[in-house]
Design goal:
Elements: H1 4-28, E1 33-39, E2 42-48, E3 62-63, H2 69-97
Antiparallel strand pairs: 1-2, 2-3
């Protein structure tokens, strides 16, 4: 039977792998924000670049066409990965303090 220390050691190693993978994906993801608007016929996605408002453009962002759908997916994945990164770091710090 494995001890608690062994289980925590395995989880710590797994978390370190997750952290490195997620950090790599976030660094390679596009910058900016994804805005989602619900319309009668479905959903529309808008891409807001980081310096969008400074250039005097609409604050709604640029409409993401159907053929650019992968951009919306990448932006959503990046936001999800940021949350995963934060939680994984918190958990690894807790295990490290144990």
């Amino acid at each position: 039977m494995r001890t608690l220390e062994q289980k925590l050691g395995e989880e710590y190693g797994w978390l370190q792998n997750v952290i490195s993978e997620v950090k790599n994906r976030v660094s390679n993801a596009p910058h900016g924000q994804l805005r989602i608007a619900r319309k009668r016929k479905g959903v529309e996605y808008y891409y807001k670049e980081e310096d969008f408002a400074q250039r005097g453009k609409s604050s709604n962002g640029r409409y993401i066409r159907k053929d650019e759908y992968s951009l919306a997916v990448q932006l959503a994945q990046r936001d999800y990965d940021k949350n995963i990164f934060k939680k994984a770091v918190e958990r690894s710090v807790c295990i490290d303090d144990f």
